[in-house]
Amino acid sequence: MNVQLTKPGVSHDKMRKHDRFARLQQKANSMDTELRRRKESDVAAKRLAAIVASSDDAIIFKDLNGIIKTWNKGAERIFGYTANEAVGKPVTILIPEDHLNEEPDILNRIRQGERVDHYETIRRRKDGQLVHISLTVSPVKDDDGNIIGASKIARDITEHKRAELVIRQQASLFNQAYDAMLVWQWEGSITFWNRGAERMYGYPREEAIGRVSHKLLNTQTDGGIGQALASLARNGVWEGELQHTSRDGQPITVESRMVLVREPSQSYVLEANRDITARKSSEQKLAESFVRKKTAREMAEAAVRAKDGFLAMLSHELRTPLNPVLLIASDCATNPEVPVEMRDYFQTILTSVETEVRLIDDLLDLSRISHGKLKLNLVDVDTHDILEQAMETVRNQMESKAIRLNLNLKAERYRVFADPVRLQQVFWNILKNAAKFTPAGGSVTAETQSPNGGDKLILKISDTGIGMTPEELNRIFSAFAQGDHIADKSSDFGGLGLGLAISKKLVELHAGHIQATSEGRNKGSLFTIELPLS
Q1: What is the distance between the alpha carbons of residues 75 and 58, in angstroms, rounded to a whole number?
Q2: What is the DSSP string of 134-172?
Q3: Which end of the chain is more exposed for a tag (fewer CB within 10 A), N or C?
């Protein structure tokens, strides 16, 4: 059976021509596709080469024997070798001796088709400097799928490692700090909590990390924590006092400093807290003590003012009625028409009233001095004359006890600027005390000196009396102070203890100085007065 394979009216020659044309057209299309594929491949290869060449990372191709085949600019920058110096050399020129065992292991893994991702290690530059790098090594295959080598991408992470080291060192230092040091994310949780914070607050690190610090510690401050955080956000730093609560519920007052560090990805706060609870408690107690002492001082001062006022009023009221008594007693004691026996009585009255008046005058003087109302009539005076006058007033008292009175006027310069009445009062008070406390048959010596080249007159009044103990010397110039002898009820030594207190204040009002010394009981006393010369 014959089958007709040609179209009707179409010859075999035409059919053969048509098939040949179709095959040529198909071959042309195939060649065009291959050309486009190769062209695209060339473009991609050039693009990849440009990327490799411009990469900051080192991109290296090595064969399975570890021989370097390609070397980009990034590799030159990181390792210091040019392409001419590196290509054809074993990759071990980059590996320190203590890391040489890494290369065989990496090549074995590559031969098995494995990829090594982000392997951190150390390599050596041409100049011998070590660099930290992160390696990614991938197997390279030919068109038939056979592994022919490896591509290595190395990234310099030296600065990153150095920064990590600094951070670790700083964290170690922060961890050793006695104060509480914590780091927390802005509007977030705690990321660092040192031993000082564990000790201060009682929360272990594991319990504090991830918590919000102000909620964990129940932070309180004047104006509220929101105001403090707003100030921190505005200024980048905040300092002040915070109230915290420890893990066991104890209140803690801290001196706090917060620093806001802004980073592109995340902002965080470094917070340093110092426990000042004990100091605040001491300050509060000190303030309360100060208030108590101030109140007590004010009450004491008020009492002194009341006492001074009372003494001033009392002295004035007592002295006024004594004036006519003094006048009458004085007249009658010297009136020859009055019988001798009566005159003696009036003399006794006069002496007693004069003693009373002197006591009252001492009270008035003390009151005036205490209130700053004592006025001095300062003139240029001869201290020798004033001293001799003062000695005359006590001569009878000393002669009645057979006390020798010695006067040694050695000072070549003896004129001072003073109130003569008040200066005589000072001399008389000391001489009267010497006469009172010196037993019969003793002696009292007054001596003046003016050291060469000096600007002071020195008066020394010494006696051979009962002397003073160290305790008595400490209070000798205090108002109303008495010696230990006053405890003996049979003692003849009386008085209010005002004379020396007034004398000291009067000497100081004259810009002078007075001092008392004694070698002890029954060894006499020495009073030294220094006054500026005119």
Answers
A1: 4
A2: EEEEEEEE-TTS-EEEEEEEEEE-HHHHHHHHHHHHHHH
A3: N
